């Protein structure tokens, strides 16, 4: 008989309030060993508060959470020793070089010089920072600082990593490097819980918890999440998405719409029927290139769910 695999992170009704707001509202989900799990949602969704509680730096008001076998409320110091937590503003020392920052965190975690150098060499190569090892951290770009922060947080090879919006404000190339580093850790059995406000990054995770105003909307794989969307998604390609949005707002058959980089995505009840109607409406009022049926995204699901909830 095989024993049931225990989750590395488990939340049951986790709740935290601040004056006038419930930041995290009875949150429950599990994170399995060796997966990248995403907390995804806009600002104010409760992502940072959740991670702070899981890291043992903030006590919950109610509910429970277990991280790496330790209860975050009863054993916060044991949790801290068992994880690596990278907050939004990671504590790099700008008057130290890249190598000196890594050496400092290696000493902080109590690893040997040989082990530190072995891990750092691999991580710096993945981050594209090898040629900058002698540069002061304060002279690095924002994306480089974030990647150096990740290297410092990972130099002791933790089994559980909590990352709070690590790619916010980071350039596209650095974001790609960042995710390459995360994927490289999976072979070592590392479990990663990362938060992001970029809904497109949900596609990179094995599973996702979609949050809104402290509450869990959905928790599943990206593919399964997208299959939950009822209706079809039409993409209107346009150089003036705001004009398209204003033109189509309130049009029959549209349940939600969201602006994208090159136009607007619409969730409609009947794509073959609505597409000609939308073409006629746009032709008279807003510039557009084409309308096409596209595969739903996580962002389409999120906007549609929130819009429907507001109507209800």
Topology readout:
Elements lengths: L8 E10 L2 E11 L4 E5 L6 H8 L7 E6 L2 E2 L4 H7 E4 L11 H11 L4 H15 L14 H13 L5 E4 L8 H14 L5 E6 L10 E6 L2 E6 L1 H6 L4 E6 L3 H8 L5 E7 L2 E6 L2 H15 L4 E5 L3 H14 L1
Parallel strand pairs: 3-8, 3-9, 6-7, 7-8
Antiparallel strand pairs: 1-2, 1-4, 4-5, 9-10, 11-13, 11-14, 12-13
Helix pairs in contact: 3-5, 4-5, 5-6, 8-9
Give a structural overview.
The protein is α/β, with parallel strands linked by helices and 312 residues long. The protein folds into two domains: 9-225, P-loop containing nucleotide triphosphate hydrolases (Rossmann fold, 3-Layer(aba) Sandwich), CATH 3.40.50; 230-295, Alpha-Beta Plaits. It has helices at residues 47-54, 76-82, 98-108, 113-127, 142-154, 172-185, 222-227, 241-248, 271-285, 298-311; strands at residues 9-18, 21-31, 36-40, 62-67, 70-71, 83-86, 160-163, 191-196, 207-212, 215-220, 232-237, 254-260, 263-268, 290-294. A six-stranded mixed β-sheet has the order 6-7-8-3-9-10, with helices on both faces. Strands 2-1-4-5 form a four-stranded antiparallel β-sheet, covered by helices on one side. Helix 4 packs antiparallel against helix 5 and helix 5 packs parallel to helix 6 (172-185). It is globular, with a radius of gyration of 22 Å. It starts with 8 loop residues before the first strand and ends with a helix. The model has no long low-confidence stretch (mean pLDDT 91).
């Amino acid at each position: 008989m095989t024993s049931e695999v225990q989750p590395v992170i488990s939340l049951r009704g986790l709740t935290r309030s601040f004056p006038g707001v419930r930041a995290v509202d009875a949150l429950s989900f599990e994170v399995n060993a060796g997966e990248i799990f995403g907390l995804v949602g806009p600002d104010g969704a409760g992502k940072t508060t959740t991670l702070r509680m899981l890291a043992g730096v903030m006590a919950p008001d109610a509910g429970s959470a277990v991280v790496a076998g330790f209860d975050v409320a009863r054993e916060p110091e044991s949790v801290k020793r068992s994880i690596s937590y990278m907050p939004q503003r990671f504590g790099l020392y700008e008057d130290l070089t890249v190598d000196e920052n890594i050496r400092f965190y290696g000493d902080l975690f109590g690893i040997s010089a040989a082990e530190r150098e072995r891990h750092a060499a691999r991580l710096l190569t993945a981050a594209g920072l090898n040629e900058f090892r002698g540069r002061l951290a304060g002279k690095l770009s924002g994306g480089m600082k974030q990647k150096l922060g990740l290297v410092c947080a990972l130099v002791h090879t933790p089994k559980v990593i909590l990352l709070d919006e690590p790619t916010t404000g980071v350039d596209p190339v650095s974001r790609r490097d960042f995710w390459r580093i995360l994927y490289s850790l999976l072979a070592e059995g590392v479990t990663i819980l990362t938060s992001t406000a970029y809904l497109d990054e949900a596609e990179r995770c094995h599973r996702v918890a979609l949050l809104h105003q402290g509450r869990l909307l959905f928790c599943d794989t990206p593919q399964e999440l997208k299959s939950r969307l009822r209706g079809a998604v039409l993409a209107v390609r346009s150089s003036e998405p705001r004009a398209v949005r204003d033109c189509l707002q309130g049009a029959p058959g549209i349940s939600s719409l969201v602006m994208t980089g090159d136009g607007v995505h619409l969730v409609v009840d009947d794509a073959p029927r609505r597409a000609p109607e939308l073409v006629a409406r746009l032709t008279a009022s807003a510039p557009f290139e084409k309308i096409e049926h596209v595969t739903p995204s996580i962002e389409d699901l999120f906007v549609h769910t929130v819009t429907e909830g507001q109507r209800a």
